[in-house]
Amino acid sequence: MNNVVASNSIRFIVLLLVQVVICNNINFLGYINPYIYIIFIFLFPIRENRLILLLTSFLLGMLVDMFSDSGGVHAAAAVCLAYTRPILLKTSFGMLYEHQSIKFSTTEIGSIITYITFGTIIHHFVLFSLEIFNITSILLILKKTLFSSIFTIILSVLIIILFSRNRK
């Protein structure tokens, strides 16, 4: 139990620091930004209490907001992602989720990519919708969601594959 708490605490801090120090300074073409802090939400243990996930996601989002001066949009998007995570897990992993036996180090890569793709698109759409908050700018919201999602998905999958143990 202590090992799980320690590894999640380290993951929380490292992803927050990488997001704030490196990723917040990346801005391709004015609208492509990676948001890799959501890897924490993706990899949070499935058997843990859902309330803990929601609270830590809120805390993570608020800390990113404080460093980014973005007024709460990351916190809202992170909580939305954490809230929809059980649906994403069931959709992507099916019976593995039903039996609470998902291990990212041993599951097939297609399921992981599906899970990360749907989660990233949900997170980014909520994030950019709240950031822009203007229905007349829906094309800009969709464009930012699409391109930032592609960049975030690629980085997230690479990071998860590189740092997961026992990859086939």
Automatic annotation (TrEMBL):
Keyword Transmembrane present in the record's keywords: the answer is yes
Q: In which compartments does the protein localize?
A: Cell membrane
Q: What is its main location?
A: membrane
Sequence intervals crossing the membrane: 12-44, 51-68, 74-97, 109-133, 145-163
Q: How does it sit in the membrane?
A: Multi-pass membrane protein
> Which UniProt key words apply to this protein?
Cell membrane, Cell shape, Membrane, Transmembrane, Transmembrane helix
Q: Does the keyword Transmembrane helix apply?
A: yes
Q: Which family does it belong to?
A: Belongs to the MreD family.
Q: What name does UniProt use for this protein?
A: Rod shape-determining protein MreD
**Protein's organism:** Winogradskyella pulchriflava
